[in-house]
Design brief:
The protein has three helices and three strands, in the order αβαβαβ. With 93 residues, the chain is of the alpha/beta class. It has a three-stranded parallel β-sheet with strand order 1-2-3, covered by helices on one side. α3 links the parallel β2 and β3. α1 packs across α2. The chain starts with 5 loop residues before the first helix and ends in a 13-residue tail after the last strand. The mean pLDDT is 94.
């Protein structure tokens, strides 16, 4: 299980609450802190898919590596962008 820093653990609890009872939840983590929140959300089944964004290539690569290593490469996307610029907000966009 992905161990989260306290501040991300608090965010994860909010994500869990928001996703409760919903299917096919997609987590979008802007400024993804190495993909930790996305990995944990996928590990625990809170989300069916995840998107991470980073403004620089190296941190985005770390997020992609974390998701791939955890076995979630197929259900995740990582964008090098500012915020949500250019990110489809729905899976079918």
């Amino acid at each position: 299980m992905q161990v989260l820093p306290i501040r991300l653990e608090m965010v994860f609890e909010q994500v869990k609450t928001a996703a409760e009872g919903k299917e096919n939840t997609r987590v979008i983590d802007v400024g993804s802190d190495h993909g930790y929140l996305a990995v944990r959300s996928l590990e625990e089944g809170v989300a069916a898919s995840a998107v991470c964004t980073e403004i620089h290539k190296a941190p985005a690569q770390r997020s992609m590596d974390a998701l791939t290593e955890a076995g979630f490469g197929e259900c995740s996307e990582v964008y090098v962008t500012d915020g949500l610029k250019g990110v489809p907000l729905r899976a079918d966009d």
